[in-house]
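Researcher: Structure prediction, please.
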Amino acid sequence: MGQPVIVAGNGRAYAAFISSDTAGACDEPAGRNADVQEVFYDGSTWSAPQNLTSCVPNTDILQFDTPKLALDEQGRAYLVSEANGNLWYTDNTSGSWSEPALITQGANIPGSVGTSLRTFYGIAASNGTVYVTFTRHADTPTDDVLLMSHPGGGPWSAPARVSPQDPQDCPKFGLSIVANEGRVGVSYVRGSLGYCHASGGADGSVPFVYTGSPEQMSAVGSLEGKSPNCFATSLANEGNLFRFVAACDQPSTLSRGQLYYKAEFLDTVGPVAHLVATARASAPAIGLHWSARDPQPGSGVAFYSVEVRDATGSWHTLLASTHATQLIYRQAHAGHRYIFRLRAQDRTANWGAWVMASTRAG
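Model: Predicted structure follows.
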């Protein structure tokens, strides 16, 4: 039996492990040593083990390895496992486990020098969207940390690079990932000079942290420049608060004594809003439209608030918390000037600054 992994939430728990003890629904390919097994706890009892990969027809797969689980806020489970240098994915969002699907192609050369995909990947989920990060290693200078996402009912995104371009092709390992409301955190360790494929590589195995959306990740902290010798990272989240820890050796003593580095980072910046109103309009109707963007790392725009006043009068709320992006104001009087203001709130409850626009009604 391989090392088990467990996730829990909403009164449920799932555990997964590698074993050949439980037969699956299909005849397994001849010679397969082990499949992914799963057990479920409903608050009172544990289920019998279920073989999740017995129906994978690939006869070249001798054994699945290192399953990793994620659980979203609704208690739905997601699993990824490695076999022959690629990742296979399944989930129970429909009420039962889906057939495993191959989600990477040639991500790693089995037995190649440097990083190995076997343990250098992770999975996280939030509100029906699952995120998978992994290292891609080949014998050419393409040692990258990649990120894929899969919204419920939608296709997998193409792998996007998290790690910056690395001409030294230093190995990447020790990956960790968390997700909350469309925002993702990924951490990893970049290998030291002795492990890089080109001269002039990094001094010390340095941890890096990135956060944002899968299409736009931003660096939020590392130990670069302090010459640590780190070997693992870990991320956890409490809602929109992401916590980061790296396990490191003291450079001066090598393996004697470990350094744990912890950073906390939070989406504290509200969205930047843009409001448009015509300079002149015919009473009683004035048309408005607006938009906003949430700076990275950001959780995304959630609501808008719109107010109006007549010249120097008091502000009056038109829309308090709306998803709308346009409005026709129908109470304008000819000869009056109206000032409108707008602000946006993100999904972690940060309000952005007010922006204004004015119109004279004719």
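Model: The CA atoms of residues 284 and 331 lie 5 Å apart.
Researcher: Thanks, that helps.
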